[in-house]
From TrEMBL:
It comes from the Eukaryota. Belongs to the arrestin family. Residues 33-147 form the Arrestin-like N-terminal domain. This is Arrestin-like N-terminal domain-containing protein. Pfam families: Arrestin_N.
Length: 330
């Protein structure tokens, strides 16, 4: 991943801040791979010299089962030329040498910044690196913090303290590497999953497999009587579910995000072939995550159909991919 250094000094201010408040303030952005905000610096007597200030995005995955407990989302690159752990950061004060390993204290240039100031920052996430969303589940917890570090005269950075550490609710980042149409209502080349049993045969159909978090997901369920000796079979119920499965260290947690249920006799009045249609309109809170960078963590989305007859229940399953933004590969 490439480190991005970007900041903008805003102004000197006089601020009175409660002791419990944070000095890191986030701003809204339309770009899914950016985090923007401001840092409030109060350097009062005794005046402290800064050799460098760095804002860093730190992510941790904590598994509650299995041999591995905590894993850094961005990893720790021992071969990196910088003293930082994460690879998503921006330097807001100091010279570039302050980031390098082995820099002698005599080479550091001090920055005297008396009074109160606000400095804008922007963290740019790598577009080719999927990131899991913030989440707290039964078997896994994913957290992100924005932390401000100050460069000391020793070889490294030290956290500025709790008031310069901000827990954020990160939406995750996983672009769709696809050229599929954005509209989920197009049925030119539907994806089909056939199923059979309990006196019927059928198929679950969706227009495509890749969706954005806010997109509607349409589906068709085609069912018909199977064979000629099942004239008395009754299809009593059709249930279609949108599922999210989180796999953490081989432990599985399944959540039903949305469902469509009908209860009726679909084969009455001599009908032997029927089609049930519906649309899931609810927004998905988490994108799919199948990147192998973090071993042991998967977020999978499926559409599941269950058809219940008087002989039992049968159905099928289709996997979806829910992304945060569209990336055209052409």
């Amino acid at each position: 991943m490439t480190s991005v250094l970007h900041y903008r000094y805003v102004r000197e201010v006089n601020l009175s801040v409660p002791e419990t408040s944070s000095f890191i303030h986030l701003a809204s952005t339309q770009e899914p791979n950016q985090i923007r905000g401001k840092v409030q610096i109060q350097n009062t007597y005794p005046i402290e010299n800064y050799y460098g200030l760095v804002i860093e995005l730190c992510g941790l995955v904590k598994f509650t089962t299995g041999p591995r407990n905590i894993e850094h989302i961005f990893g720790v690159d021992k071969n990196s030329s910088t003293v930082l752990k994460s690879q998503v950061y921006c330097q807001i004060l100091g010279c570039a040498e302050a980031l390098e390993k082995g820099t002698l204290p005599s080479k550091l240039k001090s920055v005297v910044l008396p009074g109160s100031h606000i400095i804008e920052f922007q963290l740019i996430l790598p577009k080719n690196r999927p990131l899991p969303p913030s989440m707290s589940g039964k078997y896994v917890e994913v957290t992100y913090n924005i932390i401000l570090y100050k460069r000391t005269q020793e070889n490294g950075y030290k956290p500025m303290g709790d008031r310069f550490k901000k827990l954020i609710n990160f939406h995750g980042f996983n672009p769709l590497q696809t050229v599929q149409p954005l509209s989920s209502m197009l049925w030119e080349n539907p994806v089909v999953q056939p199923f059979s049993g309990c006196g019927i045969s059928g198929a679950l159909q969706i227009p495509k497999t890749n969706y954005l978090k806010q997109e509607e997901i349409a589906f068709h369920v085609q069912i018909e009587k199977d064979g000629t000796n099942v004239s008395q079979v009754l299809a009593k119920c059709v249930k279609v579910s949108l599922l999210k499965t989180v796999i953490a260290n081989y432990s599985t947690e399944v959540e039903e995000l949305d469902s469509f249920i009908t209860n009726k006799d679909y084969f009455n009045e001599g009908n032997n072939n029927v089609c049930v249609k519906g649309v899931f309109t609810s927004k998905r809170d988490h994108p799919s995550y199948k990147d192998l960078t973090i071993g042991g963590l998967l977020i999978i989305h499926n559409i599941k159909v269950e058809v219940t007859t008087d002989e039992g229940t049968t159905g099928g399953l289709l996997e979806l991919f829910i992304g945060t933004t569209m990336t055209n590969t052409e």
